[in-house]
Design brief:
The protein is mainly α. The chain has ten helices and two strands.
Length: about 325
């Protein structure tokens, strides 16, 4: 979402963890009301994407009623109080408060997991696209096209592709630079030693299991499968707004308190800044994709998809929080 409204910011109060959130780690009152971080154009900036909304055409009166924006917002608000928000608060509180003598040892396995985890969302996005495209012959031509025009943009952005711009650095390149800057070693070493870290691998398997049909295992309806996929995609993007914004705040706190005083200040901020800027916009695009194609009767399907991702995503981040507490 390309909102320019200045966010209301409050100190994060932990839900499930007894420790208090440090004052330097803040969150928005709502994930869509936040100031946009300005990022230099040197490395895959999140340029404003085009949100494609519903179009009325001649046969619209004969088509299934679409789910309303109000209903989608209600489903999103359920995520605001879900398990992932608690897990993300816990993780980022631990991250911001890492000890000066043990931070590197604790953070290295977490960064290894995140490298796999971040890339694993790309096949999940691709699976969502395939589910929607596979409704050919079952959904309206224009509605399907509008949904796909929305869904393709965040996936293309992962590879540095933005409307009207030359291709920039991929997000994998940005993460690799961030990893090397933080831990003073190439990411390739960690990936060669263990190419499939356990927690991230489990989340990836769960995402693909659900998107490949197990989320709606009793249905062979391609439209229902597509609605599930779009709901799952929306949950990914909506929670990523919290995830990346809070992670940027936590690393800023860690940098100020531990890294910079130790003579190891972070210099490669682009990966974190790009995602803190862009995820709200991606959530808005995911919202519009649902609104352009999902039938009103699939509210329950969308809710189930969003809850499925919330369940598995929260489990992953609780495992990451555990690693930081060991």
């Amino acid at each position: 979402m390309a909102s320019t409204a200045i966010a209301m910011q409050v100190v994060v109060a932990p839900i499930s963890a007894p420790r208090a959130k440090p004052s330097s780690v803040v969150c928005r009152q709502a994930p869509r009301a936040r100031a946009v971080v300005k990022v230099l154009a040197i490395a895959a900036p999140m340029s404003p994407a085009t949100q494609h909304s519903r179009k009325v055409h001649e046969s619209a009166s004969k088509l299934p009623e679409l789910i309303s924006h109000e209903t989608i917002r209600s489903l999103e608000s359920e995520l605001d109080h879900g398990a992932s928000i608690s897990a993300l608060r816990r993780f980022n509180s631990n991250l911001a408060n890492l000890d000066a003598t043990t931070w590197e040892t604790k953070l290295r396995p977490v960064m290894h997991e995140l490298a796999y985890n971040l890339e694993s969302f790309n096949p999940a996005f691709t699976a969502c696209l395939l589910r929607v495209q596979s409704t050919i012959g079952y959904t309206d031509y224009v509605r399907r096209d509008m949904a796909l025009k929305n869904l393709i943009q965040p996936l293309a952005g992962e590879y540095g592709m933005h409307n009207g711009e030359a291709q920039a650095r991929t997000h994998r390149e940005l993460f690799s630079s961030f990893y090397a800057d933080l831990l003073k070693e190439p990411l390739e070493n960690a990936l060669e030693a263990n190419p499939r870290p356990e927690a991230a691998k489990i989340l990836f398997q769960q995402m693909m299991r659900d998107l490949n049909g197990n989320g709606v295992s009793s249905s062979e309806d391609p439209v229902e499968l597509a609605s599930y996929a779009m709901g799952y995609n929306l949950a990914i993007e909506y929670l990523a707004d919290y995830e990346k914004t809070w992670m940027l705040d936590a690393f800023r706190a860690l940098n100020e308190r531990v890294l910079a005083p130790a003579g190891r200040p972070l210099t490669e901020w682009v990966f974190l800044e790009v995602h803190a800027e862009g995820e709200a916009e991606h959530a808005a695009i995911g919202h519009d994709a649902v609104a352009t194609l999902a039938p009103a009767r699939h509210e329950g399907v969308l809710r189930r998809a969003m809850q499925d991702h919330d369940r598995d995503f929260s489990a992953f981040y609780n495992k990451m929080a555990n690693l930081l507490e060991q």
